[in-house]
Amino acid sequence: METSNTMKKVLVAGATGYLGKYVVKEFKKQGYWVRVLTRSSEKLTSIREFIDEIFIGEVTKPDSLHGICKDIDIVFSSIGITKQKDGLSYKDVDYLANKNLLNVAIKESVKKFIYVSVFNARRLRHLKIVEAKECFVDELNKSKIESIVIRPNGFFSDMTEFFNMAKKGRVYVFGDGNFKGNPIHGADLAKACVDSLTFNNQEIDVGGPDLLNQNEIAQMAFDVLNKKPRITHIPDWLRKLSLFLVRTLTPEKTYGPLEFFMTVLAIDMIAPIYGKYHLRDFFMEIKK
Ligand SMILES: NC(=O)c1ccc[n+]([C@@H]2O[C@H](COP(=O)([O-])OP(=O)(O)OC[C@H]3O[C@@H](n4cnc5c(N)ncnc54)[C@H](OP(=O)(O)O)[C@@H]3O)[C@@H](O)[C@H]2O)c1
User: Fold this and answer.
1) Which residue has its alpha carbon closest to ligand 1 atom 5?
2) Which of 120, 148, 193, 255 is a Cys-bridge partner for 246, taking CB atoms 3.0 to 4.6 Å apart?
């Protein structure tokens, strides 16, 4: 439903990404005026109708950001390395590029900064990606700008890995496969991000409506594909050994994503429930 936020202007950084696209749509749906930062406007074709203004800039290069926050009330950032292969580190992007944006936001008198980190970050801070994100959260907390830190559980987009393994005939899970989590759809998370402006919390933990263990996720993927379930349980010692080897033998850009997933899939990740989209429906959609 449209609300009366037409006077509020928001800058979305990360708009070309999985979450950012939903966030742009949600801000527009709730009546905001939306500017987006991108390094390539071609990636915005599918959400062009929800954008009022495009600012072309390179968030890692502060000189390209002058004026980006002019007349902006709220900055939202989901900028971070996931699958990008630019040769940059988490520190360069998740921390320092977001800091470039924060510096401009402060200079250009923005009132609020919403940033997307990860759920359970305090426990996971020893991981490279989390450390970079939390360094930025520290900067946000030190600054005088009002801020909201969103701490989401895993995204549905990442559950595609389970689906793809099932498609190939076998799903590999860690340990006995009983670690639980409640991943969230991008649309639900985007709504939580925009709705956060109406809460008083400075930090918001958020997960989806289904609490599932890895065996159940694998089983669901096989069900949707009408395939006989084949699940292999990887013993924990093998996970630990692999973690040690990738950390020792490969550069950060290789081991960074691996250490994150190999760690979060070996603990319970149960966040407060939010949203309405179910993983089964997401699997049905990607099956099409
Ligand atoms: N996936 C999860 O389970 C999960 C869970 C919790 C938190 N998060 C975090 O949530 C955030 C959003 O995730 P997502 O899935 O939406 O990620 P995504 O699809 O990869 O989007 C990331 C955004 O960051 C931008 N970006 C990355 N590297 C950049 C660079 N060097 N220069 C400029 N822009 C750059 C991308 O721009 P381009 O399109 O131009 O590359 C894109 O707009 C990430 O920080 C992620 O770590 C993810």
Assistant:
1) 154
2) 255
Model confidence pLDDT, tens digit, residues 39-82: 999 999 999 999 999 999 999 999 999 999 999 999 999 999 99
Find the 14 Cα to ligand 1 centroid distance in Å: 6
Q: What does the pLDDT read at residue 255?
A: 87
Q: How far apart are CA 203 and CA 181, in angstroms?
A: 19
Q: What is the residue type of 216?
A: E
Instruction: Give the three-class secondary structure for 25.
Output: helix
> Which residues, 6 or more positions from 276, have their beta carbon under 8 angstroms from its beta carbon?
188, 209
Q: Cα separation of 170 and 7, whole Å?
A: 52
Strands 212-213, 180-181: pairing is: antiparallel
In ligand 1, which atom is closest to the CA atom of 88? 31
Which residues neighbour 285 within 8 Å (Cβ) at sequence distance 6 or greater?
none
* Nearest alpha carbon, ligand 1 atom 28: 81
Sheet arrangement for strand 203-206: 53-56, 33-38, 9-13, 74-77, 112-116, 146-152, 203-206
Owner of token pair 């009408």: 226
pTM of the model: 0.94
Query: What is the distance between the alpha carbons of residues 106 and 89, in angstroms, rounded to a whole number?
Result: 25
pLDDT interval class at 2 (50, 70, 90):
very low
